[in-house]
Amino acid sequence: MERQSDEVINYVDDAFAAGRIRDARRIMVIGCSGGGKSTLAQKLARRFELTYLSIDRDILWLPGWVERSKEEQRERIVERIAGERWIMDGTNTSTFDIRLPRTDIVIWVRMPRLLCVWGVMTRWLKHLGRTRPEMAPGCIEKVDWQFLEFIWTFEEKFTPRVKAAIAAHGPHVPVLQVKSRRQMRALLDLLRVPA
């Protein structure tokens, strides 16, 4: 099944993606926690004057790490993606059916898992005892074993879901995979986005 999904995903290179991003009105940035998707999305939002939407902050969480109901999450997404110019970071595949059809390009941040763990740990230390800006108010930054296990097994457990959801709901949408910090910096350079 994974091979079949890969065959229907419209993977693109950096140069093609850079042109598509410059012209895009709606962009999804997906990937494992700690890989840099929120930072990338915020930089692109500023550079191209797109509304920044965070699944964590705007859709998923209420204060105190209380998850909104699935129905409310979908309602909030439908409401927000009705806008003409946005960039949304978040990998919740259960909403790809409503997000992908409105998306001009997907940027899939696929960093190595050790880099993702490092990213989450440094983010936790930076925001120790506080809520980071791309998180819902009242959700104090935390790291636990369950979260670290999620990151460690992301490629094995969740990547097949991501591929299947893209194949099912957006095989026509270009997908750029960013697999290293070097590639991310090269993309930002192509787009003339400040560091």
TrEMBL record:
<keyword id="KW-0418">Kinase</keyword>
<dbReference type="InterPro" id="IPR052922">
    <property type="entry name" value="Cytidylate_Kinase-2"/>
</dbReference>
<dbReference type="InterPro" id="IPR027417">
    <property type="entry name" value="P-loop_NTPase"/>
</dbReference>
<keyword id="KW-0808">Transferase</keyword>
<protein>
    <submittedName>
        <fullName>Adenylate kinase family enzyme</fullName>
    </submittedName>
</protein>
<dbReference type="GO" id="GO:0016301">
    <property type="term" value="F:kinase activity"/>
</dbReference>
